[in-house]
Specification:
By secondary structure, the protein is α+β, with helices and mostly antiparallel strands.
């Protein structure tokens, strides 16, 4: 990772990801979320995923939960795992507040070059007055880039207007090398997104209800964070592995008593699911708090914090980021 000034373009600091950790070398990779989702979907039975299904409310129905969708459909479920994003209805049902605005907005894009782009395998960032621009090759032809800044009231017109958004980014990056500006210039308008950056307060994660009965949250519904350390999607994958393992382990435990009727069996199953979700919540609480806090510190824009982060604690932050990459969520299989 190379961080430079947008004026001088001389490297201010560099962090190498080639150093080996406790489990060997690190793998840092930029992956299109759509490709990741398609790869995961191929492992599921056809029809498992129902698209364009916005959750509008959740209600209790005995030991079950009723999930109401915007299209009028209603699902009755034994276990409800809320993965419904930053504005999660399930998280609200659990008692979480709406994620806080980080004071910054983010513009993201993805560029596909017809020929090899010729960029080195480096995550390059340029820091300017009130903004941060960066890019990272996904492969020999595709480049991911971002631009985040502290928006004003006039910048609201950028939302829903990709053409103005592209020109806005180019106007801020006029001092950067032509090769760097070409990444934005070559980006199709339908590949440019604008969104405010939101995060959940770490103390809400520490003390909040990650699970309650047979309901829990995962991914951005659980731990929305700023994208400054590139761990949002990774954390969601960690959630999936640990959640599956915790539920599977709980489901194999022997019932607490002998059940002779369907109602008794349902109660036993509810209890096992509840235990599994509680274990998941316990295991993910501190890890999620750590990721949210680290992302906020790395991305925070303020004179004092910037000086301490970039000039005094840069080596320490580099080591902490390496530690984050070394996290082992364990194996999915159980005996």
């Amino acid at each position: 990772m190379v961080v430079a000034s947008s004026v001088s373009c001389q490297p201010a600091s560099e962090i190498s990801f080639k150093t080996k950790g406790n489990r060997g070398g690190h793998e840092v990779r930029s992956v299109k979320r759509s490709l990741l989702m398609e790869a995961l979907e191929r492992e599921l039975p056809s029809g498992t995923i129902r698209y364009s299904s916005k959750v509008v409310s959740v209600e209790e129905s005995g030991l079950f939960k009723l999930v109401y969708l915007a299209d009028g459909a209603v699902f009755k479920t034994k276990v409800l795992i809320g993965c419904d994003g930053v504005n999660s209805v399930v998280a609200k049902w659990l008692g979480f507040k709406k994620p806080a605005f980080a004071g910054r907005s983010d513009i993201r894009g993805c560029t596909d070059f017809k020929l090899r782009h010729g960029l080195e395998p480096k995550f390059q960032q340029f820091l300017g007055k009130g903004f941060r621009y960066g890019f990272l090759p996904c492969n020999d032809q595709t480049v991911y880039w971002f631009f985040n800044w502290c928006p004003s009231n006039q910048d609201k017109e950028l939302e829903g207007n990709p053409d103005k958004t592209k020109q806005f980014v180019l106007s801020k990056c006029h001092d950067l090398p032509e090769q760097v500006k070409a990444i934005v210039e070559n980006t199709p308008l339908d590949s440019i997104l604008v969104s405010p950056l939101r995060y959940r307060y770490p103390w809400e994660v520490l003390w909040g209800n990650i699970s309650k009965g047979n309901v829990c949250v995962a991914g951005d519904a659980f731990h929305p964070m700023t994208p400054d350390i590139g761990q949002g999607g990774c954390a969601a994958l960690e959630d999936g592995i640990i959640l599956a393992r915790c539920i599977a382990e709980a489901s194999t435990e022997k019932p607490s008593g002998v059940t002779k009727d369907k109602a008794g069996e349902d109660k036993e199953e509810f209890k096992r699911n509840e235990i599994g979700l509680k274990r998941y919540a316990t295991e993910r609480r501190w890890r999620s708090c750590e990721l949210i806090s680290m992302a906020y510190i790395v991305g925070y824009d303020g004179k004092i914090i910037n000086f301490l982060r970039d000039k005094i604690f840069s080596v320490l932050l580099g080591r902490l980021m390496m530690k984050i990459l070394e996290f082992d969520c364990g194996k999915l299989c159980i005996s």
